[in-house]
Design goal:
Helix content is 74%, strand content 0%. The chain is built from 24 helices and no strands. The radius of gyration is 24 Å and the shape is globular. It starts with a helix and ends in a 7-residue tail after the last helix.
Length: 523
């Protein structure tokens, strides 16, 4: 039998080759889409203005115009499956596998000039160019050249982007990119909805002072330190918004990895495990409140103290109103709606509520993910009590909707990896900033252990709070879509995610073994 180290080396070599083969064999999906229906009907993008002015028409398309979307989704889901498989073999987080495979596929397609990947990677710039063309009404090529000249891109990247913008199939590729991003958006709101489902209001009330202190100190200290570090390292012209996004990305922990390690070591009954898992619930809530504030700041440009207070108050009022009135609304409507479709009530009602709350949050100036999280919080199994929901009556809402999240969330994580510019990672300044912010992120969570009470080992609790995954990637993705994070800063956050996820398992196992080998008076 092969040695475990030998098997790991084989998988490290084989997985990138498998992904590369899958990517190159499917390159036609992402480079030449043939999405003619959108190219003909999407008049917002004047990609073939001369032909339209001359009254020329394109031949009628054959086949389903949505087929390219199906092809790209097949590629993304397949890549996600390969990434998860590789991560499992290497005993890493599945999200890490999806992120890594997205980075590899994105690098391959981008270097080969894939139009859809280029659009996704530079979407904020391209969207700005489109809006500028609509407002000014100038020649399309003139608008493109003008936008790229003021974008601060390198000559090679600017020329690569210009080729995509000026291709005759640009409208088709843009429509395809938007379609894929829509599926990724479904994935992220489903992810936050499922996080909300795991948050129990009773548990929040029952969380002890120790876990609450760990969460409050961890989020607060990490946010302040990360913001301050990013502010000092970034050029002064960047302003305050990029440091705020760095702080929001790094302040919330993802303890799924910690929980798995504790379970594997049969240590879930340890007081440290209960403290970490209890703090994680509060950590999610606090992290999303911070996210709501910084995204509102990015959308409005408000950085004054009064504006920040109003944004924070608006977030608290929204979540408070949803929790207070939402539960009552849920209890009154679910029984009525069960009469419309009794067999599918546990699927249709939560999904409709999720979409409604995401839309409502956006309408009042908050991020859609905040509404999705709030929808998950107020959905309770007790509200469906007494309803004989057909064959699924014995299943919980979480177990019914989990497969949807498991299908859509990987699309989001692969797209996050797709947008990482690997050439930026070769920049020494980017790597150093990534290491510095990683050190700050670690220090902030170790400081959180100062809130531990009751004789628990502070080191185990601090290490257990180290990983950053879901919230960090969501904030990074949103920051890039807003145009707040450039490729370098986006890649810095990815570096922090990778390092914190990789360092936690060995450190946590060491700290638990350390405690088990110590006498009671030593900790």
């Amino acid at each position: 039998m092969a040695h475990p180290t030998t098997r790991m080396i084989k998988w490290l070599i084989a997985l990138p080759l498998m992904v590369f083969a899958l990517a190159t064999s499917s390159s036609s999906c992402l480079s030449e889409t043939g999405y003619k229906v959108f190219a003909r009907t999407n008049t917002a993008i004047p990609a073939d203005r001369d032909a339209m002015d001359k009254g020329q028409s394109h031949p009628a398309p054959h086949g389903d115009p949505s087929a390219p979307v199906f092809g790209v989704l097949a590629l993304i889901v397949s890549c996600a499956a390969i990434g998860r498989f590789g991560a499992k073999k290497l005993k890493l987080s599945p999200v890490l596998g999806e992120l890594a495979v997205g980075i590899i596929v994105g690098a391959v397609f981008y270097q080969f000039g894939g139009t859809t990947v280029t659009i996704i990677r530079h979407y904020d710039l391209i969207q700005h160019t489109v809006e500028k063309d609509l407002s000014e009404g100038k020649d399309w090529e003139t608008t493109v050249r003008s936008s790229l000249a003021h974008a601060g891109l390198s000559e090679d990247v600017a020329e690569r982007t210009a080729r995509v913008l000026l291709t005759k199939d640009f409208s088709a590729s843009l429509a395809l990119a938007r379609s894929i991003q829509l599926f990724a958006s479904f994935g992220v709101v489903m992810l936050l909805f499922m996080v909300g489902l795991e948050v129990s209001l009773k548990e929040l009330k029952a969380i002890g002072g120790s876990a609450s202190a760990v969460a409050l100190i961890g989020v607060g200290v990490t946010f302040i330190l990360s913001c301050l570090t990013a502010f000092l390292l970034l050029p002064k012209a960047s302003g305050l918004t990029p440091p705020l996004f760095c702080g929001a990305a790094l302040c919330a922990s993802s303890v799924g990895i910690t929980a798995r390690i504790l379970r594997d070591m049969n240590s879930l009954e340890m007081i440290e495990a209960k403290t970490v898992l209890g703090a994680a619930v509060m950590d999610d809530v606090l992290g999303l409140i911070v996210l709501a504030v910084v995204t509102a700041v990015a959308a409005t440009g408000a950085v004054e103290v009064g504006d920040l207070v109003w944004i924070l108050a608006k977030t608290a009022l929204f979540l408070g109103a949803v929790i207070i009135f939402g539960i009552r609304f849920l209890e009154k409507t679910v029984q009525f709606l069960a009469g419309l479709d009794l067999g599918k009530i546990k699927v249709l009602y939560p999904f409709a509520l999720l979409m409604l709350m995401a839309w409502l949050a956006d309408r009042i100036g908050l991020a859609c993910v905040i509404g999705a999280f709030a929808a998950g919080v107020i959905i309770k199994e007790e509200s469906f009590g007494g309803i004989d929901a057909g064959s699924g009556h014995d299943q919980s809402v979480e177990s019914i909707l989990a497969p949807i999240e498991e299908l859509l969330a990987p699309i989001f994580f692969v797209l996050v990896g797709l947008q990482v510019d690997v050439t930026v990672l070769a920049n020494v300044k980017v790597l150093l900033m990534g290491l510095l912010l990683t050190a700050v992120a670690v220090a902030g969570k170790l400081a959180a252990s100062m809130g531990v009470r009751g004789g628990a080992d502070r080191l185990i609790v601090g290490i257990g709070m180290l990983p950053r995954v879901e919230v960090a990637l969501i904030v990074a993705s949103m920051g890039k879509s807003f145009g707040v994070l450039d490729n370098a800063l986006y890649s810095v956050i990815i570096i922090v995610v990778l390092l914190t996820v990789l360092m936690t398992p060995p450190l946590l196992k060491w700290s638990i073994a350390r405690k088990q080998n110590m006498t009671p008076g030593e900790f």
